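Handoff note, outgoing to incoming analyst
You'll be picking up this chain. Sequence as last confirmed:
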Amino acid sequence: MKVDLHLHSKFSNHPSEWFLKKIGASESYTEPEYIYETAIKRGMTFVTITDHNKIDGALYLTKKYPDKCFISVEATAYFPEDGCKVHILIYNITEEQFKEIDILRKNIYKLRDYIKANNLAYSVAHATYSVNGTLKSENVEKLILLFDIFEIINGGRGEKSNKNFENFLKSLTQEDLNKLYQKHKIDTFSPTPWIKGFTGGSDDHAGLFIGKTYTYCEDNGYGSIDYFIDSLKKKKTTAHGRYNDYQGFTFAIYKIAYDFTKQNKSISESFLNDINQYLFEEKKYGFKDWFKIKRLKKNKKDKKIKALIGEFLEEIRYETDIEKKLNIFYDKISLITNEFILLVVKALKKDLKKGKFYNFFRDISTAITGIFLCSPFLSSLNIMFENNNILDSIIKELDKKELFENKRVLWFTDTIGDLNGVSITLKKIAEKSLEYNKNLAIVCSLTDKSKLKDLPMNVINIDYLEKFDLPYYEDYQLKVLPILDVLKKIYDYQPEEIYISTPGTVGLIGLLFGKILNLKTTGIYHTDFSMQAKEISENDASLINMTESYTKWFFEKLDIIKVPTNEYISLLEKRGFDKSKLKIFTRAIDTNLFYYKKREKQESIRFLYAGRVSQDKNLDFLIDVFNKIEKENCELNIVGDGPYLNELKEKNKSNKKIKFLGKVEYNELPDIYNNSDIFLFPSITDTFGMVVLEAQSCGLPAIVSDIGGPKEIIIDRETGFIAKANDINSWIEKINQLINIYYTDNYEKMCIASKELVLNKFSWDRVMRDIFN
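Most recent structure output, in case you need it:
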């Protein structure tokens, strides 16, 4: 037996969606007769309607089809202590019982007692969805005590929220219910309240998904409504069928709005109404329709948007399945939105290049149509995930850690596949999450897609629409992304937590969807962009202030800010960041790759710098220090690429002791570290300094500045030295001390101590626990 136990007809007329309220539409326009015919056609054994606090539709069907239908209602009940609304589905009732229910529903405790006293079949609908914005975890705990039967597949909600609640209910034990009873002192519905019964229903309002989600029980030859209802009461039913997604939710709203326009005769016919007819009513194509399509498709490139509409109308010509129609529609809406975005971006780039700043607002106004097309999908996603975390505190209170073990993390970054510290760290995190069997994917937008072949399989690349070069950072680019394409990929992954590594456009997309999905968002403060701006721009106050203001705004929007070192926690606190959000970001390194090899001592001391070659790395200062060292036999190797490389090479081309090795493949770096004697890293803008960790892992003693994160990697005088930032005398002193140690047995001890430090403090086990705990 199959029954869709959650259906709405035209008698549900109080919408909760803001858009339907705004236009004055009803909640549903579906005729009871259509519900019956569609449900039977889709294999339902019996049919019932659960309108909000009304039984008119169900009563009509029951009188016309008494052997196939029964009266039901979705009663809006209230917790009297806080006014929280919940929906209780009550089945197979009489008209007299409905009158009693309609009075008692004002107090959920009295309603529950009435249901129990009269042995009525029921189910708590979408228990973790806040009907009026007041639902808290305490309300859900009380529902678990008050009732035994719950809707675990609500066809109006997403798969993740349904599944999370189902898994939670199935994990309940007698001990859990005892704990909740001690907290709330509410009598349970039955002697075995930890064993729950389950139902499913489409929660359809638009007539689109009737019978696609349903409750099932074995027939056993009885074939009667009474037998089905009895199975429901005895917790012998199961839930099956379709979960909703943001596309289905959006199109349901579209369909109700379209039904509203048909009811409202004052609204004139339009081409948009024609599209809705093709989409929702299987309208037959006539000569006029084909003429329209042909004319639309003939548009030239500059009118591509109209051509896409023509393609859509042609593609749905023979399609009768509503879900396939909606997928076609979504794909075309996505392409049309991209076209609007491209129009705006190209106009902006052109006007800004010519200095026509007064055209900015005209360009932005063109974007409004694209935003309008996206907004229904974004708002639907927000509604579906509005109460995404309602179960978290209950799960923690009942100590159900196993329900968190497979947490899904989506990590956003504007850089990966490059040789900077952020990219290398993220690539290793992606690789290790696969090795540790963790659910983590990294979202990026690569300029060079050939890099994908060298990245782990859990990297999700988004094709960008347009890109911008950043001033001072020739190899960093901002990408304009296709918003609906990104939305689909994010939704398909079903993330439970968002991590963001960079505050660029990809990071902004992560922040946007973190807020829309109501997910915990964690930002990683890899790079001090304000300090970089200061070094690169030679103290351009306006650029520094703008960079600091934007960076601070971005990170303040996040729930947690993870910082590589305690040094940076103190620095950011002084710069006005919220200290309660600042946590340490645990780092690690592949110690099998970055191995230690005992060095053969030579007459010539081999100094090494590795990293990005840019002005903010303080390389001019490093070369000044090197040139003042009073030792004939020494050389400085500079490894890395960057915007300052050519200029630096040109400035020092006469110095034969300085060699620029350029970009080196990542797996070749250990040999370079092991063929060097002292690592020098003068940067004061690094929040961590991954190259310092790599050097230490290879047992290479390092000298670093006393400003920034690298000083927390080494142990002063044990694995290297900390020199005063930008103080030539201090750096020369520390270098000479390390040169003196080089010629003694203490140098080998320092090398071994460096390697041991990394092994003990920077393990991947700690990183994985930090992310997934």
